[in-house]
Amino acid sequence: MTATNQQRARAQETFRRLRVIHPDAHCELDHVNPFQLLVATVLSAQTTDVLVNQITPKLFARWPDAPSLARAPIPEVAALLRERLGMFNQKGKNIVGLAKKLVEKHGGEVPRTLAELVELPGVGRKTANVVLGVAFGRPEGVVVDTHVQRLSQRLGWTTEQKPETIEKGLCALFPPEDWNMLSLVLIFHGRRVCFAKKPACAACGVNDACPSAFAAENVGRKPPRKRPAVVIEAAPKKAATKKAAAKKATATTTTVKKVIVKKGGATRIAPKKAAAKGKGSGRA
User: Which of these is catalytic: 30, 49, 65, 145?
Assistant: First the structure.
C-alpha cells in the first residue's frame, strides 16, 4: 500500500504523542520466555488476557516447557483449560500439537521467523507477530486486533475493513522499528480511552489530530445486525372433543329386516330404518 510523505509524517506524529500518553504500553500476557508467550498467545484467541493469565500459572507449573507439554495427554490439558477458557478442547489440542512440533523440528525452541511459526498448530500471522515482536523484537508486520483495527480507522490511517489489508497500510505508514510498539500503544489507548461503544474523546490527548473525534461511536465498529421481524402466528384452534365430533357427525342409517312369524309360515314386511348413531338403535 502506498502512502504520501505527508500522510506518513502526520500518522507518525500522532503515534509519537500516543506513546507519551501510554509510556507503560506492553504485552499483558504473563510469560517468562518465548515458549510461554507463544502458548499464552494461542490461548488468548476469542478470550481476554486476564482469563489467560489466570490459567497459565497452573498450566506452566505442570508443563513448563515444550518437551513436557508435548508428552501431556490432551484430555488432561483440556480439562485444566476448561476452568477458565472456552474452546478448551481445540486449544488443548493446539498447544500440545505445537509443543510436539517444536520438539520434532526446532529442538524444543521457538523459531524466529513468521514462516516457521505459522506452521505450528493454532498459530496464525497475528500470533506469530506477537511472538516475534515481544519476544525477539523482530516483527514481520503489525498485529491487527480489534483495538488496532478500530483506532487505525478512527485516526484516519486506513479505510480498509480486513485485518490483513489494514496491516499492509500500517506497514506503509510506519517504519519496521515502530511495528511492535504501534500495536501495543493502540491496544492500551483502545482499552483506556478510545472505547468501542463510548469513546472518551474529551479525555483523549490526540483528539485534535483525530478526524473522528466527538463522533467516533460508529467508526471502526461492525454495523448492527438486522434481526428478522418476529411473526406472531395465531394459536391453532383446539380439535373438537370426541363428544362434540360425535354430535356434528352426519347420522348414518342402516337397514334392518323385520320378520314376523305367524302360524302357517313367515310373513315379511317392508324394511325399517334404524335410528341414527348416538341415539340408540331400534329394537326389532
Answer: 145
